[in-house]
Protein backbone atom coordinates (compact mmCIF):
# COMPACT_ATOMS: atom_id res chain seq x y z
CA UNK A 1 0.00 0.00 0.00
CA UNK A 2 1.32 3.41 -0.86
CA UNK A 3 0.33 6.63 0.76
CA UNK A 4 -0.80 9.33 -1.64
CA UNK A 5 -0.90 12.14 0.78
CA UNK A 6 0.04 14.83 -1.70
CA UNK A 7 -2.67 13.84 -4.15
CA UNK A 8 -5.33 13.54 -1.47
CA UNK A 9 -4.33 16.87 -0.04
CA UNK A 10 -4.50 18.73 -3.33
CA UNK A 11 -7.86 17.17 -4.21
CA UNK A 12 -9.61 17.11 -0.88
CA UNK A 13 -8.18 19.88 1.28
CA UNK A 14 -9.41 22.88 -0.77
CA UNK A 15 -13.02 21.80 -0.57
CA UNK A 16 -12.65 20.98 3.12
CA UNK A 17 -11.23 24.37 3.96
CA UNK A 18 -14.04 25.86 1.96
CA UNK A 19 -16.46 23.79 4.02
CA UNK A 20 -14.77 25.02 7.17
CA UNK A 21 -16.25 28.45 6.47
CA UNK A 22 -19.79 27.09 6.73
CA UNK A 23 -18.88 25.12 9.82
CA UNK A 24 -17.32 28.17 11.49
CA UNK A 25 -20.38 30.27 10.73
CA UNK A 26 -22.56 27.50 12.13
CA UNK A 27 -20.45 27.38 15.29
CA UNK A 28 -20.51 31.16 15.75
CA UNK A 29 -24.28 31.46 15.30
CA UNK A 30 -24.94 28.48 17.56
CA UNK A 31 -22.60 29.95 20.17
CA UNK A 32 -24.35 33.33 20.05
CA UNK A 33 -27.69 31.57 20.51
CA UNK A 34 -26.22 29.51 23.35
CA UNK A 35 -24.96 32.67 25.07
CA UNK A 36 -28.45 34.15 24.98
CA UNK A 37 -30.19 30.98 26.10
CA UNK A 38 -27.60 30.34 28.80
CA UNK A 39 -27.90 33.87 30.15
CA UNK A 40 -31.71 33.72 30.19
CA UNK A 41 -31.77 30.36 31.95
CA UNK A 42 -29.23 31.55 34.51
CA UNK A 43 -31.17 34.72 35.26
CA UNK A 44 -34.43 32.76 35.39
CA UNK A 45 -32.95 30.34 37.87
CA UNK A 46 -31.60 32.98 40.25
CA UNK A 47 -34.68 35.19 39.95
CA UNK A 48 -36.16 33.57 43.04
CA UNK A 49 -39.25 32.33 41.21
CA UNK A 50 -39.58 28.72 42.42
CA UNK A 51 -41.87 27.54 39.64
CA UNK A 52 -39.66 28.98 36.94
CA UNK A 53 -36.63 27.40 38.59
CA UNK A 54 -38.32 23.96 38.67
CA UNK A 55 -39.33 24.25 35.05
CA UNK A 56 -35.80 25.17 33.99
CA UNK A 57 -34.29 22.33 36.02
CA UNK A 58 -36.53 19.87 34.17
CA UNK A 59 -35.45 21.39 30.86
CA UNK A 60 -31.80 21.05 31.84
CA UNK A 61 -32.30 17.42 32.90
CA UNK A 62 -33.83 16.60 29.53
CA UNK A 63 -31.01 18.22 27.61
CA UNK A 64 -28.27 16.71 29.79
CA UNK A 65 -29.94 13.32 29.86
CA UNK A 66 -30.07 12.85 26.10
CA UNK A 67 -27.22 12.70 23.55
CA UNK A 68 -26.55 15.79 21.45
CA UNK A 69 -26.84 13.65 18.33
CA UNK A 70 -30.36 12.60 19.27
CA UNK A 71 -31.27 16.24 19.93
CA UNK A 72 -30.01 17.28 16.51
CA UNK A 73 -31.99 14.50 14.84
CA UNK A 74 -35.02 15.54 16.86
CA UNK A 75 -34.77 19.20 15.90
CA UNK A 76 -34.22 18.37 12.24
CA UNK A 77 -36.80 15.62 11.70
CA UNK A 78 -39.31 15.76 14.54
CA UNK A 79 -39.78 19.41 15.53
CA UNK A 80 -40.94 20.58 12.06
CA UNK A 81 -43.36 17.64 11.93
CA UNK A 82 -44.74 18.55 15.34
CA UNK A 83 -45.12 22.21 14.44
CA UNK A 84 -46.76 21.31 11.13
CA UNK A 85 -49.10 18.92 12.92
CA UNK A 86 -50.22 21.54 15.43
CA UNK A 87 -50.49 24.43 12.99
CA UNK A 88 -52.38 22.33 10.42
CA UNK A 89 -55.37 22.44 12.75
CA UNK A 90 -55.61 26.16 12.09
CA UNK A 91 -54.04 26.44 8.65
CA UNK A 92 -54.96 23.57 6.34
CA UNK A 93 -52.15 22.01 4.34
CA UNK A 94 -49.53 23.78 6.42
CA UNK A 95 -46.13 22.20 6.18
CA UNK A 96 -42.77 23.40 7.35
CA UNK A 97 -39.17 22.26 7.24
CA UNK A 98 -35.93 23.36 8.81
CA UNK A 99 -32.90 23.54 6.64
CA UNK A 100 -30.04 21.47 8.02
CA UNK A 101 -28.09 24.62 8.83
CA UNK A 102 -30.95 26.18 10.81
CA UNK A 103 -31.58 22.93 12.64
CA UNK A 104 -27.88 22.71 13.46
CA UNK A 105 -27.82 26.24 14.88
CA UNK A 106 -30.95 25.63 16.96
CA UNK A 107 -29.96 22.17 18.20
CA UNK A 108 -26.40 23.11 19.10
CA UNK A 109 -27.53 26.46 20.51
CA UNK A 110 -30.04 24.92 22.90
CA UNK A 111 -27.73 22.12 23.99
CA UNK A 112 -24.77 24.40 24.64
CA UNK A 113 -27.02 27.09 26.14
CA UNK A 114 -28.14 24.65 28.79
CA UNK A 115 -24.62 23.64 29.74
CA UNK A 116 -23.41 27.23 29.63
CA UNK A 117 -26.27 28.42 31.86
CA UNK A 118 -24.63 26.56 34.73
CA UNK A 119 -21.43 28.50 34.16
CA UNK A 120 -23.31 31.79 34.11
CA UNK A 121 -25.29 30.87 37.19
CA UNK A 122 -22.30 29.87 39.27
CA UNK A 123 -20.30 32.87 38.12
CA UNK A 124 -23.13 35.23 39.08
CA UNK A 125 -23.42 33.56 42.48
CA UNK A 126 -19.64 33.79 42.88
CA UNK A 127 -19.73 37.60 42.89
CA UNK A 128 -19.41 38.96 46.41
CA UNK A 129 -22.76 40.14 47.79
CA UNK A 130 -21.07 43.41 48.73
CA UNK A 131 -20.90 44.36 45.04
CA UNK A 132 -24.66 44.22 44.75
CA UNK A 133 -25.15 46.06 48.04
CA UNK A 134 -22.77 48.83 47.06
CA UNK A 135 -24.71 49.29 43.83
CA UNK A 136 -28.08 49.31 45.60
CA UNK A 137 -26.77 51.80 48.14
CA UNK A 138 -25.81 54.12 45.27
CA UNK A 139 -29.36 54.00 43.92
CA UNK A 140 -29.20 51.16 41.37
CA UNK A 141 -32.32 49.05 41.05
CA UNK A 142 -31.80 45.28 41.33
CA UNK A 143 -32.02 45.01 37.57
CA UNK A 144 -29.51 47.78 36.95
CA UNK A 145 -27.10 46.29 39.48
CA UNK A 146 -27.31 42.92 37.76
CA UNK A 147 -26.74 44.38 34.31
CA UNK A 148 -24.13 47.01 35.06
CA UNK A 149 -22.19 45.61 38.00
CA UNK A 150 -22.73 41.85 38.38
CA UNK A 151 -22.83 40.68 34.74
CA UNK A 152 -19.65 42.41 33.61
CA UNK A 153 -17.78 40.73 36.45
CA UNK A 154 -19.34 37.31 36.08
CA UNK A 155 -18.69 37.28 32.32
CA UNK A 156 -15.02 37.73 33.08
CA UNK A 157 -15.06 34.83 35.50
CA UNK A 158 -16.84 32.56 33.06
CA UNK A 159 -14.71 33.45 30.09
CA UNK A 160 -12.20 30.58 30.29
CA UNK A 161 -14.97 28.01 30.53
CA UNK A 162 -16.94 29.69 27.73
CA UNK A 163 -13.88 29.60 25.51
CA UNK A 164 -13.56 25.87 26.03
CA UNK A 165 -17.21 25.45 25.13
CA UNK A 166 -16.69 27.38 21.90
CA UNK A 167 -13.90 25.01 20.88
CA UNK A 168 -16.03 21.99 21.82
CA UNK A 169 -18.92 23.43 19.86
CA UNK A 170 -16.80 23.84 16.76
CA UNK A 171 -15.86 20.17 16.97
CA UNK A 172 -19.42 19.07 17.69
CA UNK A 173 -20.62 20.67 14.46
CA UNK A 174 -19.26 17.45 12.89
CA UNK A 175 -22.34 15.68 14.31
CA UNK A 176 -24.43 17.70 11.88
CA UNK A 177 -23.31 15.24 9.23
CA UNK A 178 -26.15 13.08 10.56
CA UNK A 179 -28.67 15.74 9.60
CA UNK A 180 -27.23 16.01 6.09
CA UNK A 181 -25.10 19.03 6.89
CA UNK A 182 -21.92 17.27 5.96
CA UNK A 183 -19.57 19.73 4.42
CA UNK A 184 -16.49 18.29 6.06
CA UNK A 185 -17.43 14.79 7.14
CA UNK A 186 -19.61 13.79 4.20
CA UNK A 187 -17.17 15.24 1.66
CA UNK A 188 -14.40 13.27 3.30
CA UNK A 189 -16.45 10.08 3.33
CA UNK A 190 -17.38 10.24 -0.30
CA UNK A 191 -13.84 11.15 -1.37
CA UNK A 192 -12.47 8.23 0.64
CA UNK A 193 -15.03 5.87 -0.84
CA UNK A 194 -14.23 6.92 -4.40
CA UNK A 195 -10.46 6.89 -4.14
CA UNK A 196 -9.88 4.33 -1.37
CA UNK A 197 -7.48 6.86 0.17
CA UNK A 198 -8.93 6.17 3.62
CA UNK A 199 -5.92 7.02 5.76
CA UNK A 200 -5.19 10.23 3.85
CA UNK A 201 -8.78 11.47 3.73
CA UNK A 202 -9.62 11.14 7.39
CA UNK A 203 -6.24 12.42 8.47
CA UNK A 204 -6.82 15.54 6.40
CA UNK A 205 -10.31 15.97 7.89
CA UNK A 206 -8.81 15.76 11.37
CA UNK A 207 -6.14 18.28 10.40
CA UNK A 208 -8.75 20.74 9.19
CA UNK A 209 -10.44 20.69 12.58
CA UNK A 210 -7.10 20.92 14.34
CA UNK A 211 -6.09 23.93 12.28
CA UNK A 212 -9.34 25.64 13.26
CA UNK A 213 -9.34 24.72 16.94
CA UNK A 214 -5.75 25.43 17.93
CA UNK A 215 -5.77 29.13 16.99
CA UNK A 216 -9.23 29.49 18.48
CA UNK A 217 -8.05 28.02 21.77
CA UNK A 218 -5.07 30.34 21.67
CA UNK A 219 -7.26 33.36 20.96
CA UNK A 220 -9.51 32.46 23.87
CA UNK A 221 -6.56 32.24 26.24
CA UNK A 222 -5.19 35.63 25.15
CA UNK A 223 -8.60 37.23 25.56
CA UNK A 224 -9.00 35.59 28.93
CA UNK A 225 -5.69 36.94 30.19
CA UNK A 226 -6.67 40.42 29.10
CA UNK A 227 -10.09 40.66 30.69
CA UNK A 228 -9.27 38.81 33.89
CA UNK A 229 -6.26 40.98 34.60
CA UNK A 230 -7.96 43.08 37.26
CA UNK A 231 -10.56 40.72 38.63
CA UNK B 1 -33.88 74.90 64.54
CA UNK B 2 -32.13 73.02 61.71
CA UNK B 3 -34.09 70.47 59.76
CA UNK B 4 -34.17 66.72 60.29
CA UNK B 5 -32.27 64.67 57.72
CA UNK B 6 -33.07 61.27 59.22
CA UNK B 7 -36.25 60.51 61.16
CA UNK B 8 -36.66 56.99 62.47
CA UNK B 9 -39.86 56.04 64.24
CA UNK B 10 -40.56 52.87 66.19
CA UNK B 11 -38.22 50.82 64.00
CA UNK B 12 -38.37 47.06 64.44
CA UNK B 13 -36.40 44.47 62.52
CA UNK B 14 -36.83 40.76 62.79
CA UNK B 15 -34.73 38.02 61.20
CA UNK B 16 -36.92 34.94 61.31
CA UNK B 17 -38.07 34.74 64.90
CA UNK B 18 -35.27 36.86 66.29
CA UNK B 19 -36.01 40.52 66.86
CA UNK B 20 -32.78 42.39 66.32
CA UNK B 21 -34.14 45.94 66.55
CA UNK B 22 -36.84 46.44 69.13
CA UNK B 23 -38.29 49.87 68.62
CA UNK B 24 -35.73 52.50 67.64
CA UNK B 25 -36.55 56.21 67.59
CA UNK B 26 -33.83 58.45 66.30
CA UNK B 27 -33.65 61.86 64.67
CA UNK B 28 -30.50 63.21 63.03
CA UNK B 29 -30.42 66.90 62.22
CA UNK B 30 -28.64 68.60 59.38
CA UNK B 31 -24.83 68.54 59.77
CA UNK B 32 -25.06 66.51 62.98
CA UNK B 33 -22.51 63.75 63.60
CA UNK B 34 -23.97 60.79 65.41
CA UNK B 35 -21.74 57.93 66.50
CA UNK B 36 -23.42 54.62 67.31
CA UNK B 37 -21.63 52.49 69.88
CA UNK B 38 -22.56 49.18 71.40
CA UNK B 39 -21.44 45.60 71.97
CA UNK B 40 -21.18 43.14 69.10
CA UNK B 41 -24.59 41.90 68.00
CA UNK B 42 -26.47 44.82 69.51
CA UNK B 43 -27.90 45.75 66.11
CA UNK B 44 -25.72 48.68 65.01
CA UNK B 45 -25.16 47.46 61.48
CA UNK B 46 -28.78 46.44 61.11
CA UNK B 47 -29.89 49.91 62.16
CA UNK B 48 -27.53 51.53 59.68
CA UNK B 49 -28.72 49.20 56.90
CA UNK B 50 -32.34 50.06 57.68
CA UNK B 51 -31.55 53.76 57.22
CA UNK B 52 -30.98 53.19 53.49
CA UNK B 53 -33.33 50.22 53.25
CA UNK B 54 -30.66 47.65 52.45
CA UNK B 55 -32.72 45.90 55.12
CA UNK B 56 -36.45 46.45 55.02
CA UNK B 57 -37.81 47.15 58.51
CA UNK B 58 -40.41 44.77 59.88
CA UNK B 59 -42.26 47.69 61.43
CA UNK B 60 -41.86 51.45 61.79
CA UNK B 61 -40.78 54.15 59.40
CA UNK B 62 -37.60 55.76 58.10
CA UNK B 63 -37.66 59.21 56.52
CA UNK B 64 -34.84 60.89 54.66
CA UNK B 65 -35.15 64.65 54.38
CA UNK B 66 -38.87 64.34 55.05
CA UNK B 67 -39.46 61.55 52.49
CA UNK B 68 -40.62 58.19 53.78
CA UNK B 69 -39.04 55.10 52.19
CA UNK B 70 -42.32 53.26 52.27
CA UNK B 71 -45.72 54.49 51.23
CA UNK B 72 -48.61 52.12 50.65
CA UNK B 73 -50.10 54.39 47.99
CA UNK B 74 -47.00 54.55 45.89
CA UNK B 75 -46.98 52.49 42.71
CA UNK B 76 -43.37 51.81 41.92
CA UNK B 77 -41.92 51.06 45.32
CA UNK B 78 -38.55 49.72 44.14
CA UNK B 79 -37.85 52.74 41.96
CA UNK B 80 -38.71 55.11 44.80
CA UNK B 81 -36.49 53.30 47.28
CA UNK B 82 -33.63 53.36 44.76
CA UNK B 83 -34.14 57.08 44.24
CA UNK B 84 -34.21 57.84 47.96
CA UNK B 85 -31.04 55.80 48.47
CA UNK B 86 -29.14 58.26 46.29
CA UNK B 87 -29.60 60.77 49.14
CA UNK B 88 -27.89 58.42 51.60
CA UNK B 89 -24.21 57.68 51.05
CA UNK B 90 -22.94 54.45 52.56
CA UNK B 91 -19.37 53.37 53.23
CA UNK B 92 -18.89 49.69 54.03
CA UNK B 93 -16.41 47.87 56.16
CA UNK B 94 -15.12 45.91 53.16
CA UNK B 95 -14.99 48.89 50.72
CA UNK B 96 -16.97 47.02 48.05
CA UNK B 97 -15.42 48.89 45.16
CA UNK B 98 -16.55 47.54 41.79
CA UNK B 99 -13.67 45.26 40.81
CA UNK B 100 -14.07 45.67 37.07
CA UNK B 101 -13.84 49.46 37.12
CA UNK B 102 -10.95 51.85 37.78
CA UNK B 103 -11.05 54.25 40.71
CA UNK B 104 -12.42 56.88 38.34
CA UNK B 105 -14.88 54.40 36.84
CA UNK B 106 -16.12 53.51 40.31
CA UNK B 107 -16.90 57.13 41.12
CA UNK B 108 -18.38 57.85 37.68
CA UNK B 109 -20.57 54.76 37.35
CA UNK B 110 -23.62 55.82 39.34
CA UNK B 111 -23.39 59.41 38.09
CA UNK B 112 -23.90 58.12 34.56
CA UNK B 113 -26.25 55.20 35.23
CA UNK B 114 -28.38 56.67 37.98
CA UNK B 115 -28.12 60.44 37.62
CA UNK B 116 -28.01 60.30 33.85
CA UNK B 117 -25.06 62.68 33.53
CA UNK B 118 -22.92 62.71 30.42
CA UNK B 119 -19.52 61.03 30.63
CA UNK B 120 -17.84 64.43 30.52
CA UNK B 121 -19.86 65.85 33.41
CA UNK B 122 -19.50 62.64 35.41
CA UNK B 123 -15.75 62.63 34.90
CA UNK B 124 -15.48 66.18 36.16
CA UNK B 125 -17.44 65.43 39.33
CA UNK B 126 -15.56 62.18 39.85
CA UNK B 127 -12.19 63.85 39.55
CA UNK B 128 -13.25 66.58 41.94
CA UNK B 129 -14.19 63.99 44.55
CA UNK B 130 -11.08 61.87 44.02
CA UNK B 131 -9.06 65.02 44.55
CA UNK B 132 -10.97 65.60 47.77
CA UNK B 133 -9.85 62.24 49.16
CA UNK B 134 -6.35 62.82 47.82
CA UNK B 135 -6.38 60.12 45.15
CA UNK B 136 -6.65 61.93 41.83
CA UNK B 137 -3.31 60.48 40.75
CA UNK B 138 -4.70 56.96 41.27
CA UNK B 139 -7.75 57.58 39.06
CA UNK B 140 -6.67 55.02 36.48
CA UNK B 141 -5.87 52.27 38.98
CA UNK B 142 -8.09 49.27 39.49
CA UNK B 143 -9.12 48.39 43.06
CA UNK B 144 -6.72 45.44 43.08
CA UNK B 145 -3.90 47.93 42.51
CA UNK B 146 -4.81 50.05 45.54
CA UNK B 147 -4.11 49.61 49.24
CA UNK B 148 -7.01 49.04 51.61
CA UNK B 149 -6.84 52.61 52.82
CA UNK B 150 -6.85 53.94 49.26
CA UNK B 151 -9.77 51.68 48.31
CA UNK B 152 -11.77 52.98 51.23
CA UNK B 153 -11.03 56.57 50.28
CA UNK B 154 -12.22 55.86 46.73
CA UNK B 155 -15.36 54.32 48.23
CA UNK B 156 -15.91 57.53 50.18
CA UNK B 157 -15.40 59.60 47.02
CA UNK B 158 -17.88 57.35 45.19
CA UNK B 159 -20.54 57.95 47.84
CA UNK B 160 -19.80 61.70 48.03
CA UNK B 161 -20.07 62.14 44.26
CA UNK B 162 -23.79 61.43 44.47
CA UNK B 163 -24.13 64.52 46.64
CA UNK B 164 -25.95 62.72 49.47
CA UNK B 165 -27.79 64.43 52.31
CA UNK B 166 -26.18 62.13 54.84
CA UNK B 167 -23.28 59.66 54.98
CA UNK B 168 -23.36 56.34 56.82
CA UNK B 169 -20.13 54.64 57.89
CA UNK B 170 -20.20 51.07 59.17
CA UNK B 171 -16.87 50.30 60.83
CA UNK B 172 -15.16 51.82 57.84
CA UNK B 173 -11.67 51.33 59.25
CA UNK B 174 -11.88 47.95 60.94
CA UNK B 175 -10.82 45.95 57.87
CA UNK B 176 -7.67 48.05 57.54
CA UNK B 177 -4.12 47.46 58.69
CA UNK B 178 -3.45 49.77 61.66
CA UNK B 179 -1.06 51.99 59.71
CA UNK B 180 -3.77 52.70 57.11
CA UNK B 181 -6.51 53.69 59.55
CA UNK B 182 -5.23 57.24 59.96
CA UNK B 183 -5.55 58.31 56.32
CA UNK B 184 -9.21 57.20 56.19
CA UNK B 185 -10.10 58.83 59.51
CA UNK B 186 -8.50 62.04 58.27
CA UNK B 187 -10.80 62.05 55.24
CA UNK B 188 -13.87 61.39 57.40
CA UNK B 189 -12.84 64.11 59.80
CA UNK B 190 -12.48 66.50 56.86
CA UNK B 191 -16.04 65.72 55.82
CA UNK B 192 -17.24 66.36 59.33
CA UNK B 193 -15.55 69.75 59.30
CA UNK B 194 -17.23 70.54 55.96
CA UNK B 195 -20.56 70.11 57.74
CA UNK B 196 -21.63 66.76 56.28
CA UNK B 197 -24.39 65.02 58.21
CA UNK B 198 -23.04 61.66 59.34
CA UNK B 199 -23.94 58.52 61.22
CA UNK B 200 -20.96 56.37 62.13
CA UNK B 201 -20.52 52.98 63.69
CA UNK B 202 -16.92 52.69 64.87
CA UNK B 203 -14.62 51.06 67.37
CA UNK B 204 -12.23 54.00 67.29
CA UNK B 205 -13.20 55.49 70.65
CA UNK B 206 -10.91 58.46 70.50
CA UNK B 207 -12.17 59.36 67.05
CA UNK B 208 -15.78 58.93 68.21
CA UNK B 209 -15.16 61.28 71.11
CA UNK B 210 -13.54 63.91 68.87
CA UNK B 211 -15.95 63.92 66.02
CA UNK B 212 -19.34 63.10 67.53
CA UNK B 213 -22.03 65.60 68.49
CA UNK B 214 -23.96 62.73 70.02
CA UNK B 215 -23.17 59.21 71.10
CA UNK B 216 -25.99 56.74 70.66
CA UNK B 217 -25.35 53.65 72.73
CA UNK B 218 -27.20 50.48 71.71
CA UNK B 219 -27.62 47.25 73.56
CA UNK B 220 -29.72 44.27 72.58
CA UNK B 221 -31.70 46.08 69.89
CA UNK B 222 -32.63 49.23 71.77
CA UNK B 223 -31.04 52.63 72.28
CA UNK B 224 -29.90 52.74 75.88
CA UNK B 225 -28.22 56.15 75.93
CA UNK B 226 -28.23 59.15 73.66
CA UNK B 227 -25.97 61.92 74.94
CA UNK B 228 -23.10 64.25 74.02
CA UNK B 229 -19.69 62.53 74.11
CA UNK B 230 -18.48 64.46 77.21
CA UNK B 231 -21.47 63.13 79.14
CA UNK B 232 -21.36 59.64 77.70
CA UNK B 233 -17.67 58.98 78.31
CA UNK B 234 -17.31 60.75 81.64
CA UNK B 235 -20.67 60.24 83.20
CA UNK B 236 -22.71 57.47 81.55
CA UNK B 237 -26.11 57.05 83.09
CA UNK B 238 -26.47 53.28 82.67
CA UNK B 239 -24.46 50.42 84.13
CA UNK B 240 -24.30 48.77 80.69
CA UNK B 241 -22.63 51.81 79.14
CA UNK B 242 -20.15 52.04 82.01
CA UNK B 243 -19.09 48.44 81.46
CA UNK B 244 -18.80 49.00 77.72
CA UNK B 245 -16.53 52.04 78.16
CA UNK B 246 -14.31 50.15 80.60
CA UNK B 247 -13.99 47.19 78.25
CA UNK B 248 -13.06 49.34 75.30
CA UNK B 249 -10.35 50.99 77.47
CA UNK B 250 -9.50 53.56 74.88
N1 LIG C 1 -29.30 38.70 57.55
C1 LIG C 1 -29.40 38.26 58.84
N2 LIG C 1 -30.05 37.12 59.12
C2 LIG C 1 -30.16 36.69 60.37
N3 LIG C 1 -29.64 37.30 61.43
C3 LIG C 1 -28.97 38.43 61.25
C4 LIG C 1 -28.81 38.98 59.93
N4 LIG C 1 -28.09 40.13 60.03
C5 LIG C 1 -27.82 40.28 61.34
N5 LIG C 1 -28.34 39.28 62.08
C6 LIG C 1 -28.26 39.14 63.53
O1 LIG C 1 -28.71 40.33 64.09
C7 LIG C 1 -27.96 40.66 65.26
C8 LIG C 1 -27.44 42.06 65.16
O2 LIG C 1 -26.51 42.10 64.11
P1 LIG C 1 -25.72 43.43 63.71
O3 LIG C 1 -24.82 43.05 62.60
O4 LIG C 1 -26.69 44.51 63.48
O5 LIG C 1 -24.90 43.73 65.03
P2 LIG C 1 -23.74 44.78 65.26
O6 LIG C 1 -24.14 45.59 66.42
O7 LIG C 1 -23.45 45.50 63.99
O8 LIG C 1 -22.54 43.85 65.66
P3 LIG C 1 -20.97 43.99 65.32
O9 LIG C 1 -20.42 44.99 66.28
O10 LIG C 1 -20.43 42.62 65.58
O11 LIG C 1 -20.86 44.41 63.90
C9 LIG C 1 -26.89 39.60 65.39
O12 LIG C 1 -27.30 38.67 66.34
C10 LIG C 1 -26.84 38.97 64.02
O13 LIG C 1 -26.50 37.62 64.12
MG1 LIG D 1 -21.82 45.51 62.63
From TrEMBL, chain A:
InterPro entries named in the record: AA_ABC_transptr_permease_3TM (IPR010065), ArtM/GltK/GlnP/TcyL/YhdX-like (IPR043429), MetI-like (IPR000515), MetI-like_sf (IPR035906)
Database matches in PROSITE patterns: ABC_TM1
Compartments in which it is found: Cell membrane
UniProt KW ATP-binding keyword: no
An example Gene Ontology molecular-function term: transmembrane transporter activity
Record's bilayer topology term: Multi-pass membrane protein
Keyword hit for Transmembrane helix: yes
GO biological processes: amino acid transport
TM stretches of this protein: 23-43, 55-77, 97-115, 157-181, 201-220
Domain named ABC transmembrane type-1: residues: 20-220
GO cellular component terms, A-Z: ATP-binding cassette (ABC) transporter complex
Swiss-Prot/TrEMBL keywords: Amino-acid transport, Cell membrane, Membrane, Transmembrane, Transmembrane helix, Transport
Protein family: Belongs to the binding-protein-dependent transport system permease family.
Superkingdom as given in the UniProt entry: Bacteria
Species for this entry: Psychrobacillus soli
Protein name: Amino acid ABC transporter permease
Amino acid sequence: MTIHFGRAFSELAPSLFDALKTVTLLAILAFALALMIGMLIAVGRISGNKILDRFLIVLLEIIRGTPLLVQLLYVYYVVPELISFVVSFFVPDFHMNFGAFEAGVIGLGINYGCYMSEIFRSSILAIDKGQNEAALALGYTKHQALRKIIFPQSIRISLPALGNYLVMLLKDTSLCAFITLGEIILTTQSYAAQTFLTIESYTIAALVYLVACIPLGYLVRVLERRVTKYV
Amino acid sequence: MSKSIIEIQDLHKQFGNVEVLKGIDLVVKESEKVVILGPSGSGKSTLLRCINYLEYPTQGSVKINGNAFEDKNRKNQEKHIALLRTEVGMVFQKFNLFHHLTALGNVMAALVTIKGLSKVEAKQIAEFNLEKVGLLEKAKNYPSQLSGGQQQRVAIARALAMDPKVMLFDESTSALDPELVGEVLRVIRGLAEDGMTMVLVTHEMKFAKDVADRIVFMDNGVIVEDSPPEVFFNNPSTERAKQFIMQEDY
